[in-house]
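Hi W.,

Here's what went into the run:
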Amino acid sequence: MFRRILIANRGEIALRIMRACHELGVETVCVFSEEDRGAGFLELADRVICIGGAAPRDSYLKSDRIIAAAEVTGADAVHPGYGFLAENAAFAEKCRACNIEFIGPSADAMRLLGDKAAARTLAKKVKVPVVPGSDGVLEDEAETVRVAGRIGFPLLIKAVAGGGGRGMRIVRDKGGLSTAVRQAAQEAEGAFGSGALYIEKYLERPRHVEVQIMADNHGGVVHLGERDCTLQRRHQKLLEESPSPCIDSRTRKDLCAAAVKLTRVAGYSSAGTVEFLVDGKGKYYFIEVNTRIQVEHPVTEMTTEIDLIKTQIKVATGEPLEFNQRSVHPRGHAIECRVNAEDPDADFRPCAGFIEKFRPPGGFGVRVETYGHENCRVSPHYDSLLAKVVVCQTTRTEALSCMQRCLQEFTIEPIKTTLPFLRKVISHPNFVNAKHDTGFVERTF
Ligand code: ADP
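Here's what came out:
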């Protein structure tokens, strides 16, 4: 086992990782930016070390400083969490070159599956269905027009390096094509340092269903069931649940098998997520792989009773998985709501500031992952995710009433949060009856 792990992240996921480390008897080092100096989440770390200024590019994205921090503090591994450097293959390589284990897949597997165009090509090769679209990266305008003509409108321009919905544009007709391509390339270049694009047919009213994979370095690849992340706003997840209320057992089996196949051929290890869109007829299409732990991982932990972070750490030391496909039996129904520091009445504008009153919910089958507390500061520099409320109950109906009760109980003042919005959305009959799709929130609220 590692002696000391450096956490290259902040907020709720830093806390989540520190807790797993301490249960494994591993010491923790947490890096922080000037902006996060004195933040509550740092109090759990055995050591903390400042790595630069508030802007992520001056601190949490500074790979050399993070590696130097690991060396100075004697950390023998780095956990990147999600976001920041979590899907940066060059960072993983640099860590390992310095004899510091990167807790995640190999750099090769990250490149193969993290590049969305490369992942599509691989999926096609192993006969996992993909959304109709371009073969690889778009070379020039002539090719873009040709591909668009072949697959038809509406279509979606997507960034190869994309994430968080950035670099993505819906195009309804030929007239809008070249502007959309230009804007998407610019946005992707700014956000990811690569303006490479590809095209997919824009599926109308799909559901988002993803499969959690866990793999070791000895050929063990196990799926831990699916999560339904259809409830989104502007292609950003608001709520995740497992099992999916909108697929039958046949589709579930096929999706999970496809996810295992794809990760196995990529030589993948650690936690990963294979994402699919499912249409109204139950036809599914691969869209992308996230080569890291995801925000919504607790949903799967609640139904499988497997600690994904501890498993990632153990796998990184070279241990084989402690479970196999036959020993995994997801149980009950889990739901996660993302509580963001945003004002739903002002177009979800991020709301930074001081929290004076903070009273999280509790009770049977309830888990809250948050860095929030009384007198806590919410920084405008980082992601607005403030808390995740996760519940697990026997049935979806019970899980929904438990979640509604939790969202009522949760008090965060005076900053604005998405709590009132979530309460409204989860009581809407179309969501309660699982008749929603990825565009439901925009159309209804
Ligand atoms: P990102 O990595 O930027 O989050 P994804 O490829 O994961 O992008 O897609 C995010 C969301 O965008 C999906 O959950 C879905 O709602 C929507 N989306 C992506 N591809 C398509 C598509 N081809 N047709 C319709 N919606 C799509």
